[in-house]
């Protein structure tokens, strides 16, 4: 994950954006001064891009690209070291009978499973990501959130997926949310930070845009839709709004930041819709795992089945891939 090395901490945010974070009033003025989202327009555009058809050669490329963008995830109370090792094995060789199948981008686990994942993936180039900050609700003190982050980083996590305080955001305590993201970013050290907005709880596209910019101002390397624990999770229109945010951020600052939709993306057809959106809304340079990820587990199974179908010319059936 290299593209976000140009993304400095929020203390180095270029002017005039730096003025936006001077105090609560400045931050509120900036966020509420962002252009409003045309709900009908963004939903129609998302629906239109979702109808695009692509040729076979492009579809094979899209499937391989999507596989390489997957954060293969297990975030259950019943997770065991054995399950994490099995997930790591699948991350390394998603389809053991097809060695040309790309590896996934990362394996995402709880902090107490990071050490197991790091050991299982050592030398592969696959990142270990860890949720932190009281995932998924985030209803705990900042001290505990920082400690949670430190546990994951000390165990070897290369990426941290944090949750914002949605209650504070919805009450308009923007500076509090900003400062907490900054603090978590500092605690990450060299690890990259993905900021989970939990868009299903933000209610409006305008709030999604404001939360996206807030996370970018605070130094988030990625903005992420969801924990996957709240419905609705990722949607194409919401992802459009977030892609617009990182594109506009790049235009203003020259810095590349990433987007990660997570939750509810289960089929190859859906994944391709998101890749079309990335290309059309943000731009071609975002079509790589350094700048776009899928937070998923079951999605990989369908991608592998469709990959076999495209290569063999017939449907292989679900028994040919492992089921998570």
Automatic annotation (TrEMBL):
SUPFAM superfamilies in alphabetical order: Aldolase
Record's keyword terms, sorted: Lyase, Schiff base
NCBIfam families xrefs: deoC (TIGR00126)
Alphabetical list of InterPro entries matching this protein: Aldolase_TIM, DeoC, DeoC/FbaB/LacD_aldolase
Lineage: Bacteria, Bacillati, Actinomycetota, Actinomycetes, Pseudonocardiales
Reaction(s) catalysed by this chain's protein: 2-deoxy-D-ribose 5-phosphate = D-glyceraldehyde 3-phosphate + acetaldehyde
Name the UniProt record assigns to this protein: Deoxyribose-phosphate aldolase
One Pfam family of this chain: DeoC
EC number assigned by the record: 4.1.2.4
Gene3D superfamilies the UniProt entry points to: Aldolase class I (3.20.20.70)
Similarity comment: family membership: Belongs to the DeoC/FbaB aldolase family. DeoC type 2 subfamily.
The protein's enzyme class: lyase
Region (Disordered): 1-22
Pathway: Carbohydrate degradation; 2-deoxy-D-ribose 1-phosphate degradation; D-glyceraldehyde 3-phosphate and acetaldehyde from 2-deoxy-alpha-D-ribose 1-phosphate: step 2/2
